[in-house]
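Hi there,

I know you've been waiting on this one. I reran it after we fixed the sequence typo, so this is the corrected version. Both the input and the resulting structure follow.
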Amino acid sequence: MKALVTGGAGFIGSSLVDCLIERGGEVRVIDNLSAGSLDNLGRWEGDPRLSFVKGDLLDRGTVIDALDGCDVLYHLAANPEVRASRASPEEHFRQNVEATHRLLEAVRVAGGVKLLVFASSSTVYGEADVVPTPEDYGLLKPISHYGASKLAAEALVSAYASIYGFRSVIFRLANIVGPRSSHGVIYDFVNKLRGNQRELEVLGDGSQSKSYLYVEDCVRGMLLGAEKASERVEVLNLGSGDRVSVVEIAGIVVEEMGVKGCEVHLTGGVDGGRGWAGDVKIMLLDCSRLRSMGWVSRLSSAEAVRMTARALAKG
């Protein structure tokens, strides 16, 4: 089967492309390269199994052309910034909600897609009262623009799949980390230490504790879940079985950077110690549904953080 991967030159998308081609698949990538990089796809340059379209999901004609001949659609293109200071509500709406709607309209018009896999986020749960949080937890009350945009996109995917007869699998992802990551707490800490090795600023009161999943574990989970899911619309959590605090992450990054005598400074945060408005303090997903299909995370949260910090520290 031929797959189209939106955002396929990005962090998670390019890792998914690697795995699909390694398994013998033919892949087409569409990416506007606003966050992704062709370097992430460099190992497949000249390989006939990969084709690349530079284009935006808001351009209907380009998307319809990209869908031609594709049976499976992996939708990973999005603005990934949770912090409101780094992405406006308008940007989240256009890049996460409107772009998803345009993509689904293209799927409706073009036909041919049998399966749509959507990368959603744990942020749709907001501040869950149940931890670990299962897929059937409700009411869903996201506390960030990013989480709200992902929940809206989930609803669109579910509606289009139900009406137009293709299957969809929605993955609610924990914090995904790995060598190609270009945002997030590990990336920020590495860059801060490159600028100042005497002090590392940590946003919040330090009690934030979340699940981190290595990108290879994430991709394996997505492919297995897409294969095993049986419902017309299936929602699956995807994260590690444990969590790690932001202070522990700071310590790991300091170690992997080889920095001595660095003082970790907590800012105290906002709204009860959050790193920023909209920051979920505690996040751990109940992934028993995906584990029942045969998936298991090979790395713990701390191990995933360490491997990522080590790779980013090497540049």
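Quick highlight: The chain is about 35% helix and 20% strand.

Best,
R. S.
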